[in-house]
Amino acid sequence: MSEQGQENGALKDSQRKNRRIRVAAAIVAVLALAACLMLPRQSVEQQLRAIEAARAIPDSENAAVIYDKLLAEVGELPLCADLFDKDTCSIIGSCPWSTSEYPRVAEWIGGHKQTIAMLLEAAKFERCRFPIGDLSAESEVERMNRNAAIRGWAGILLDLAAGNDLGEGRIDDAIAKYRCIVQLGRHVCQQPFTLERSDGRWMETVGLNRLIELIGLLEPDNSELDAIEQLPVEIGDHWRERAEEMLRVERLLYRGRCSAIARVKDFVAGYPLEKYFESERDESRNVLLYRRVFKITIALARYRNKRGHWPASLDEVRELAPPQSFIDPVNGESLVYETWRSSIFDSTFKLYSKGKNGIDEGGRYSAAIDPNSLEVIVEEDDDLFWPPRRLFEESNTEAQE
Fold first, then answer.
1. pTM higher than 0.85 for the full model?
2. Of 159, 151, 235, 214, whose CA–CA distance to 187 is shortest?
3. Neighbours of 358 (CB within 10 A)
4. What is d(CA 111, CA 117) in angstroms, rounded to the nearest whole number?
5. Where are the domains of the chain?
């Protein structure tokens, strides 16, 4: 046989060998996927029970015990009729308000004093563990109902009650309720579910934002700042390890509740939980940003209380807050700070993030909806923390006029 023929034969043998290897690898991959997708229901339940056992804490240290009692006795709160009025809701949901202005809302809050007291008691706990539940539809419904009730306690009852406290001059009571909202959010975030973590982050940002606004609006003294700063706030980034725990539980529940055929279809289309995993990263960075701004705002207020004026730059308060506080987790850069005045404030400051795009757009945010795709197109993405955007925009309008 010629030299050329030998080379061709060797090439064909090599190609056949490579094809056999690829076929074998494909078979192994298919069998592994099938084994994963066909994971017995009993095995899923056993793994969930093992995770449950590892997460367990004593009832004496578990805020969920109090929340469970509230769920049994109160559940989701029926709303006061006045809260369905758009104008009323927009005012008392964002500003201090007095009992004389909205007596029926104040009466509604007064009817839930015991609920508020129990929530304040639960906020004293650091840890919270609700049961993961089983694979039944009833367990999923129970979780959904619990989430709806807790969102109402934090985002409506506590928030409105704190606004009334501010309007009536009860500053310490307002601080306690805003801190309670933050802690309730942190408790919900300790559950290994995507929905709970999203809800918990929303509650935490609501509470932190209210405290940031309170500091800027009322300029509290050092004793009030001490009360605010008692709130345990993490400024380190621990997202990955906590997200992996959530993803493990969500995957097990998904395997246990969906048929093998449905899971194969989802696998081919792109496993949906991986997309949630990505959105988790963005939400985590956003709430981390609020925590760091919270620390900076306290440092700014302590500087003002000592010097009688706001600092000219953040460099003057770097010793009053942890170093990580000054790093924007959304873009890795510094936050934007400058002294600021308007017709509303003789002297205050402006503090904002440059957003994902890292471009300083003066604290502005604007977006438009694409008429074809209905996709929201963000044009300017600065995240303004102080002054409140409603006051900032009013001041800009006045300046233009």
1. no
2. 151
3. 13
4. 12
5. 40-308, 330-401
